[in-house]
Every structure is written in structure tokens, then in C-alpha cells.
Amino acid sequence: MGLLTGRRRRAFNELNGWVAAWGPSGGGVRVALMPGITPPDSTNTGAGYTVELNNIHIGTLTVSGGTVSVYITEPMPGFMQVVRIWLVPGGYVYDNGPTPGVDLTPGTYQVYATLRVLPTSAVYGSAADLTLRCGGSPAAAITLRVPDPREWGLRADIYTFSSPSWPPFGAGYNYRGTWSVGAIYFWLYVSGQGDQLGLSSPYFSRVLRDDSAPKWAAYWINPAAATWINWAIKYTGRLYVPWSNIRVGVWHDDGVYVRLCSIDTGNSWWYYTSPAFHVTSGTCGAPGEYSVEVGYFEGAGTAALVFVIGPGAGNDAYIPTIDGAWRCPNFNWAGGTCSVGWIFVPASPAVPHFRGTNYTPGSTDGGGSPGP
Description:
Blueprint: E1 2-4, E2 9-12, E3 18-25, E4 28-33, E5 53-63, E6 68-71, E7 80-88, E8 91-95, E9 102-104, E10 107-117, E11 127-134, E12 137-145, E13 154-161, E14 173-181, E15 185-189, E16 205-208, H1 215-221, E17 231-241, E18 245-253, E19 256-260, E20 263-264, E21 276-283, E22 288-298, E23 303-311, E24 317-320, E25 324-328, E26 331-332, E27 337-338, E28 343-346, E29 353-355, E30 359-360, E31 369-370
Parallel strand pairs: 4-12, 15-16
Antiparallel strand pairs: 1-5, 2-3, 3-4, 5-10, 6-9, 6-11, 7-8, 7-10, 11-12, 13-14, 13-17, 15-23, 17-22, 17-29, 18-21, 18-23, 19-20, 19-22, 24-25, 25-28, 26-27, 30-31
């Protein structure tokens, strides 16, 4: 008897990144799933939902050699909120804990699951095996785990504050939670302060609404609120840079800093502002993968943050994502505008892009494959 699975599969929603991935692992199956938050609809783009996998097909079980009893004996993993596993035909072998199991005659059975992780960032990195047993003998493992945020993109740590003091993310900043995102881009704006770039993609938050936040950030700030002000985000991750000499530009409202290669803007951009574009130059040495950190705070009104990078000379500019980048071949580095429109280009040695440790970029924006 064995548990067989097909190709990798994944789940994505409005939270600017991937929330689940599952696929084969030896003779079993591995499922990775982000914390089960229920984000508020901070951008007025649709109905609410909870991050979970509901009634998904995770594998096929083959029984041979006679009737056997199939069951799971492990207790409920401490980081999970919901774990239900059943066979079709057959019935439950796990329902938030062990069940009596089912007796199966020789044949092929489909394995389904409903899974939800606890809604707290304290569970990142947790993992547990639930073992399908046949007549007392282990047959296949179902591994449940919560991926590190940087596996599938950038780590985004969310804070609240009373006053955006410098240095950030220390005294006076209250850590709320962490998410994983696929780009550094959101523009939630007051009427009359429209988005200067006009982009939209799976990894971007862009809507006309003030005193707001991306859905993933709004949950950690206050999921019961109707508006969101006085919050901050620290992004950390890895950025592939194809040039030795670089320029970095940031649209921001309110304050921001950038640390990448030789660039450290310090507190020179860390202030209240209407949407503004600032640019600086630096060097990275040889083309390659580099640590990047972007800190941001929002007071009230428009919330805007767009990270742009390009070579040290010329008009090329890129807004990187984990699948590649949006390119403007005629970018105004003084004013931060693109006169010809943005075109998506897949990740390659010539294209800057964020990298996850367990993520394969796709040929389209949002088309990549997180590893389970």
C-alpha cells in the first residue's frame, strides 16, 4: 500500500503572495500552509475569507493484498487549528485528532484534507508528521508544516507605534506579526493623490482608499478595525542584482529607508510626506544575490510604497517581484514616472528579482511554484 501524489499544487489569494503548497515527498505527501488568519477587507476588493485549505485532494491511496484497517494515531499537532483527513470512498481517518479509522478492501482511494494553521506568526517553522497506518504498519507520512516567510518571498514584519521615532523597530514600536510577500509595492491613496505608476499584479495592493493597509498587514495591525494608521513594516529578504552599479528609487508616503549593498539611506527619507519619489546610487560589486532591507511607516491618509531598481546609468528601471520584474525602458529617474508603460519580464540573469529559498519563479507574474 502506498500514498501517491501528482504534480505540485499551490494556493494563492489576495494577500500578495502564496499561502499554501502541497506535493509528493518520497512515498508520502508534504503540505506547507501559512498561518490561518482571517484578514479584514482593508481594500474593499471582495468578501472575507480565512487562509486554509478546504476539501483539497492531496493524494491517492492504493490498497492491495486483502482488507486492512487504515488509521492515524498521532495527536493533533500543536500549531494546527483544523486537521481533517478522509478517504473517498471510505471516511475519516483523522478529525482534529485520531478516529477509529476505516476498513478498506483492495482498490484505489482518493485522499482529501481540510487544513488550517493557528492564526499566529509564532508557528512559523513548525512541522509534524501524521502517519497513515495499515493494520498497524506505517504506510505513508503526511507532513504538515508552516514555511519560513522567506521561503516564498520576502519576510514582512508588521509593527504599530505612537510616534515614528528613529531608529525604527526598537523602543516605541510594537511588533504585531509577520507575513510573506512577493513584492514591495502598495498604493492605497486619497482621492486626488492617485497612483503615479498605474500597475496591478498578483503581488500589488492598489486601490483608492485612505487610512488603510494591505490586507495581510491590516490583520496584524488590528483585524477588527475599519481604518488603519500608525503602522510600520520591515521587509527583509534576498534580491538578485544583475549590475555592479545601481540606482534605487522609492515612491513613499510616509517614511522609508533602504539598505542594499553599499546603500543605506538612514533616516534621510524617514519623515511624514505626501507621495514622494526619492532616488540614490550605490554599488553591489559583482552581479549576484544580496540581502535587502526596506523599512516603512505610515501615519495617515495615503499609504504608498514602491521599490524601484535599475543600473547606475541609462533609463532602465525595474519593480522586482519573486517571479521577475516589471520593466520600464524609459524611466524618469528624477521624477519617478514611466513614459512608455511597464512590461513584465520573467526572472533571468539580466533581470532583478526577489528570491525565496524554496520557490521557483514562473514565466508570468504570480505564475511561480512554491515548494511544499
